Amino acid sequence: MKRLLLPLILFLFVVLEGVALELLPSNLVVGNLLIIPHWVLVFLVFLAIFYDYENTYYAVLYGLIFGLLIDVVYTGVLGVYMFSYAFVIYIIHGLKRMLHGNIYVTLILGFAGVASVDILIEFIYTMVGLTEAPWIDYFTHRLLPTVILNLVFLVILYPIFAKRLTRWGGEHLTKNNAL
Fold it and tell me: Structural domain boundaries of the chain?
């Protein structure tokens, strides 16, 4: 049952990303700010830090799968989110080997992950000609609000999932070693 729980949580976040802006106060949404919820990515950061071990890459696999799902459902270009999520989670997975998983490291890696993914997506969309906004406008009107909103989401999720994912990862590792 726990094997299905992680994909179900990620699927729930994919669905909630579509209605996330409806949950925000209207003065944030109506203004010239463009806030993009990367809630799947935030949960993938949790998976990379707390669930995966050095030789497991479940977070990267889920990044590929659910990044493709986000591409299919919300965007017109396939592969951008899939590549961006998987690449950034792979980097975070490598960085977590050097750092101890606590709230500060999670905030730093979450900040770096969300900012990197959003910049990478904007860069790819600029290269294919889908966006033409100047980088200073992108930085002030999209990147900063997006990173702040997603860090707030990360702080809300931390007490719910940090210890739970560590326990589930240990149980999964123990079960696989017993086989």
Answer: 41-170
